[in-house]
């Protein structure tokens, strides 16, 4: 795995008191193994980009981060439930007020379904305002006549199948920051951002993957620690959750609540190590584990749940019924079946309940647009205008409502 070259020195401490960039964490993380980073053809273009991001005002406030942390602690107690949903890859061209309004409406509809099913207030979290970088299973994509670097998200390269579009371009990192700010501003303008009542708020989250985007956005906060100011709730993906990785070290140093995806190949030892590193003080709300096993393997979650409970970590468990259920059709189109997604949700709720834990909510890839990317509820995906995802297939609103209606409290639980 390549070492991450982020220099981590010489960056200005700018901004309001208590909100200056924290170069210490960047230098701590520099040099640790970092998977899924682009091969920038000209790394000398990076330092000005880092400086620009480090000098920006924070996208989210530390007060907001703390407020979400408190809500997650209440969710760990079973007083609230969680909905985290949005695009697989968010486009920087879809962060305008009208885009954000549609996404918020979708979160409201899905949140209402979960509230009706559980009787619990719902904390709404978007995969929004920064879900711009994607982990990929291959570095290359075969195209007629050769191969191209794979699309890694709009903060790295462009999706079009041409060499010049797929070449990683550091100026896209700045475009990402500007788009994220437009999305955050749009949430504020809707009355759903900073200053909104907790029950109205839409919190931001994304996979903290691209270190050249994240490290310059680490800020000091007034309680004498550091937080990631690019989002309220960063998560680590299934491919970068190695305990000695740059990504895990970064999350360990931050005071945001953090989440980590866990797939069916995770061992008990790996999960216990992650809990020890990411939640050393056993703080309710600090760590969420997002299970993404697939409908056929979710029973294998049981020993992990027992081990975490026995180790005394008050983690929140969530169900991502999407990423373990992706199938590639013979024609190469990636899709997911709604019935598999619903089956995983049901099983996940039950496995957690049988092992003295509870499923605090759902993590979905879904879009309010008229799409046909997953199979079910009258939709059969075909290449064409209805299949727009540039990464994983998303649920349409109707499909997502069906999925959310499948999430429920286990039998016997009292809301
Ligand atoms: C994702 O959430 O889009 C993703 C890539 O998930 P995972 O890390 O679980 O594969
Ligand atoms: Co995805």
Automatic annotation (TrEMBL):
Protein EC: 2.5.1.54
Compositionally skewed regions (Low complexity) per UniProt: 7-20
Chain intervals for the UniProt region annotation (Disordered): 1-22
Keyword Manganese part of the UniProt annotation: yes
Keywords linked to the UniProt accession: Amino-acid biosynthesis, Aromatic amino acid biosynthesis, Cadmium, Cobalt, Manganese, Transferase
Tree of life domain: Bacteria
GO MF annotations in UniProt: 3-deoxy-7-phosphoheptulonate synthase activity
Reaction(s) the record says it catalyses: D-erythrose 4-phosphate + phosphoenolpyruvate + H2O = 7-phospho-2-dehydro-3-deoxy-D-arabino-heptonate + phosphate
Cofactor(s) required, per the database record: Mn(2+); Co(2+); Cd(2+)
Pathway assigned in UniProt: Metabolic intermediate biosynthesis; chorismate biosynthesis; chorismate from D-erythrose 4-phosphate and phosphoenolpyruvate: step 1/7
Residues that hold phosphoenolpyruvate according to the record: 127, 238-239, 261, 292
Cofactor note: Binds 1 divalent cation per subunit. The enzyme is active with manganese, cobalt or cadmium ions.
Keyword field contains Coiled coil: no
One biological process term in Gene Ontology: amino acid biosynthetic process
Pfam families: DAHP_synth_2
Residues engaged in binding Mn(2+): 88, 323, 365, 392
Annotated family: Belongs to the class-II DAHP synthase family.
Protein name according to UniProt: Phospho-2-dehydro-3-deoxyheptonate aldolase
Originating species: Streptomyces finlayi
Underlying gene: phzC1
């Amino acid at each position: 795995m390549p070492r991450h070259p982020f220099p981590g020195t010489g960056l200005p401490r700018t901004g309001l008191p208590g909100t200056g960039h924290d170069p210490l964490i960047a230098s701590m993380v520099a040099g640790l193994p970092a998977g899924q980073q682009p091969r920038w053809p000209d790394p000398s273009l990076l330092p000005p980009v880092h400086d620009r991001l480090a000098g920006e005002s924070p996208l989210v406030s530390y007060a907001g981060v703390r407020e979400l942390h408190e809500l997650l602690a209440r969710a760990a107690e079973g007083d609230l439930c969680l909905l985290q949903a949005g695009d697989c890859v968010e486009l920087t061209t879809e962060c305008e007020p009208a885009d954000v309004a549609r996404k918020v409406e979708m979160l409201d509809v899905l949140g209402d379904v979960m509230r009706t099913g559980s009787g619990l207030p719902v904390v709404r979290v978007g995969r929004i305002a920064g879900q711009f970088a994607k982990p990929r299973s291959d570095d290359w994509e075969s195209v007629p006549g050769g191969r191209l670097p794979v699309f890694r998200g709009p903060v790295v390269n462009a999706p079009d199948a041409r060499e010049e579009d797929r070449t990683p371009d550091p100026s896209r990192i700045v475009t990402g920051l500007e788009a994220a700010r437009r999305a955050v501003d749009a949430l504020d303008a809707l009355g759903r951002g900073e200053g909104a009542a907790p029950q109205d708020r839409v919190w931001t989250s994304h996979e903290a993957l691209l270190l050249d985007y994240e490290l310059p956005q680490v800020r000091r906060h007034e309680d004498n620690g550091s937080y990631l100011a690019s989002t309220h709730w960063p998560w680590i993906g299934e491919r970068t959750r190695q305990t000695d990785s740059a990504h895990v070290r970064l999350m360990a140093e931050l005071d945001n609540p953090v989440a980590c995806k866990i797939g069916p190949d995770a061992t008990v030892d790996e999960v216990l190590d992650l809990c020890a590193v990411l939640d050393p003080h056993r703080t309710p709300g600090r760590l969420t584990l997002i299970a993404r096993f697939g409908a056929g393997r979710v029973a294998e979650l049981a020993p992990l749940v027992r081990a975490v409970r026995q180790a005394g970590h008050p983690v929140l468990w969530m169900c991502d019924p999407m990423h373990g259920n992706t199938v590639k059709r013979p024609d190469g189109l990636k899709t997911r079946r709604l019935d598999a997604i619903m089956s995983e949700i049901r099983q996940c709720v039950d496995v957690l309940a049988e092992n003295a834990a509870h499923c605090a909510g759902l993590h979905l890839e879904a879009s309010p647009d008229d799409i046909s990317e997953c199979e079910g509820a009258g939709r059969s995906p075909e290449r064409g205008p209805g299949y727009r995802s540039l990464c994983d297939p998303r649920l349409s609103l109707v499909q997502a409502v069906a999925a959310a209606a499948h999430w429920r409290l286990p039998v016997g639980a009292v809301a």
